[in-house]
Design goal:
By secondary structure, the protein is mainly α. It has a single domain (about 1-410), classed as Glycosyltransferase (Alpha/alpha barrel). The protein is built from 12 helices and 12 strands. It has helices spanning about 1-25, 55-70, 75-90, 115-135, 135-155, 190-205, 210-225, 250-265, 270-290, 315-335, 335-355, 385-410; strands spanning about 50-55, 100-105, 110, 115, 165, 185, 235, 250, 300-305, 305, 315, 365. Strand 9 (about 300-305) and strand 10 form a beta hairpin. Helix 1 (about 1-25) runs antiparallel to helix 12 (about 385-410) and helix 6 (about 190-205) runs antiparallel to helix 7. The protein is globular and about 55 Å long.
């Protein structure tokens, strides 16, 4: 078992360094306008005129800051610094505070609303950059942004966070993240990533205010976003938590299962840890039973009529990455070999069908014949090195810990 664990960990580390991080360092810096390109198609063609999203830039910063913290390689630090400098120079709203949602190819403000989802990822990235480098300016910027989110995005009546506000931090009708999302006041997705950002910030900034807000957010997700059976998240809600969607997102469910447990673990709250442990296992079991195919791949979404994806017969890259971590987390919590097998199957599906072994990085997804989606981008506002990079970071660490435990027992 120990040898198999080492082989898997070594394979993941090779994938991380040679195929994900190396790809982003070689192919995505924008040498004309600075920062990173906004979009690249599946055939490696850079799309001229593509805007640059806050989410893409923040995720690049988080990924390479994490890589530098773990491996201390100068090229990872240089890439993180490039992302940080561009973020501060071009995305910062110096008049009203916070960060713009989109800038154009030249780095000029294009969509100026304050999308809480994007701000949460910026907190996450700035906190990780501080964690990796010790830079106090990055920590201050993360803490200041936390206070802005709490001042303007928090709902003091019902708790939780409003999706978006105008540039001036006023109420807006333009709430949704993308054309695929409902235009509702609150979403699971935004809350999940505020949770993630606050967890990352609390690792490096032990503010009592932050601690209380993170604990409250965990409880809010368990009380209002998790369904009554404790198996799936509701996706969209109004400000009073009335559910507006019957869809299930298997990728978010399995991602949320381990992120909720991680948040409680970082807090060190025994009661929340036990509560999130039960939820993590229940959600992992539901995804394994309802959303996973025999080949190890999981579907994106379902509704009351079944798998939404089967109308299009596609499976995207990021739910596969999250499934590998989420199932392995469930295995670590229980020792149940079914979860270990599910994690291994997830990796097998990724390796066989999702990784682009020829050109690098991962495909957006595959079709019914398990062929890559040729028209989907390799790089875009939403296609970043974060899900796959983070899955590798997590699995390398967790497999290393498991190997150490086995060695100690022997």
């Amino acid at each position: 078992m120990k040898d198999e664990t080492n082989v898997w960990g070594n394979r993941l580390e090779a994938e991380l360094k040679a195929n994900i991080l190396d790809f982003w360092m070689k192919h995505t810096p924008d040498d004309t306008y600075g920062g990173f390109i906004g979009e690249m198609d599946n055939q490696m063609k850079v799309i001229p005129g593509a805007g640059k999203s806050l989410v893409l830039n923040a995720r690049i910063l988080w990924t390479f800051a994490s890589a530098y913290r773990i491996y201390h390689a100068a090229e990872y630090l240089a890439t993180a610094e490039r992302a940080y400098d561009y973020l501060i120079q071009h995305f910062t709203d110096r008049e009203f505070g916070g960060f713009f949602w989109m800038v154009d190819e030249h780095g000029r403000p294009a969509e100026t609303k304050k999308q809480i989802y994007g701000l949460a990822f910026t907190v996450y990235a700035l906190a990780e950059f501080h964690h990796a480098t010790g830079r106090e300016d990055s920590l201050k910027q993360a803490a200041d942004l936390f206070h802005l989110i709490e001042q303007y995005g928090y709902d003091p009546i019902h708790q939780g966070y409003i999706e978006a506000l105008s540039r001036e931090w006023e109420m807006t009708e333009a709430l949704c993240l993308s054309s695929k999302d409902m235009n509702e006041k609150k979403s699971m997705n935004t809350h999940l990533h505020v949770l993630e950002g606050y967890t990352g910030l609390y690792r490096v900034w032990k503010s009592e205010v932050l601690r209380n807000k993170l604990a409250e957010l965990i409880e809010t997700m368990l009380d209002h976003i998790l369904d009554a059976d404790g198996r799936h998240f509701h996706l969209f809600m109004d400000e009073a938590w009335r559910v507006k969607s019957a869809h299930i997102s298997f990728g978010h469910d399995i991602e949320g299962s381990w992120l909720l447990y991680e948040a409680a673990e970082v807090l060190g709250d025994t009661a929340l840890l036990e509560r999130t442990r039960k939820v993590a296992l229940s959600m992992a079991e539901a995804v394994l039973a309802e959303g996973t195919e025999p080949d190890g791949g999981i579907w994106n979404e379902a509704d009351l009529n079944g798998f939404i994806d089967k109308a299009h017969e596609t499976r995207d890259w990021w739910p596969q990455a999250e499934a590998m971590v989420g199932f392995y987390n469930a295995y670590q919590l229980t020792g149940n070999l079914r979860f270990l097998q599910a994690a291994e199957n997830s990796w097998s599906f990724i390796d066989n069908y999702i990784i682009d072994h020829k050109l690098g990085e991962w495909y957006w997804g595959v079709d019914a014949s398990l062929q890559p989606l040729a028209s989907a981008p390799k790089v875009s506002a939403w296609k970043c090195p974060y899900h796959n990079g983070r899955a590798c970071f997590e699995m390398i660490r967790r497999l290393g810990e498991s190997s150490h435990v086995e060695e100690t027992i022997q």
